[in-house]
Amino acid sequence: MNQLGTKRLETERLILRKLEVSDIEPLYYNYGSDPQTASYVMWDKHKNIDETREYVESCINAYNDNKYLWVVELKELKEPIGMIELLHIHSKYQTAEVAYAYGSKWWRNGYATEALKRVLHYGFCEVGLAVIEARHFPSNPASGKVMEKAGMKYEGRLRKRMINPTTKEREDLLVYSMLKEEEHEF
Q1: What is the C-alpha to C-alpha distance for residues 67 and 6, in angstroms, rounded to an integer?
Q2: Distance of CA 33 to the CA centre of its chain
Q3: Which residues pair with 96 in a beta bridge?
Q4: Given its phi and psi angles, is residue 161 left (phi above 0), alpha (psi -120 to 50 degrees) or beta?
Q5: Which of 12, 44, 56, 88 is the most buried (most CB within 10 A)?
Q6: Model pTM?
């Protein structure tokens, strides 16, 4: 497995790149403070721009440790609309999890699928991962559709695994995955 960290990636409509200090304000307004986005992720909505600043600064510092975290920038807007990350990377088993979130203003345009396909390709073909998985709350079926459109397959349900930060209720997680040998199909 190659420890490459976050490299700049592109798709037809998107640039996936490392976070920069200049991203703090657009990330706060386009994504971090969006209550709709926060209702489907495992973190709380940012209460103020200082929370976003702390988050961005901690992420920038983590790039030194081979962190795989991209801000997703819409080429035509030249601003971040969300983020995608490879996390829980196990070098011994060549596995990782992928997580993503986008501001609700950009939902239903195919951006999440486009970015996910690119990160899956990078993970398999450049980093050398064998399996990449993803999870979502059942209350967010659109995220499962993104995973399916990117070629991931449904594996199962983890019962009452997380507490939804918005509802404060326990929720199941639905798990999808892709194997390296399946990536070429998409």
Answers
A1: 6
A2: 17
A3: 132
A4: alpha
A5: 56
A6: 0.91
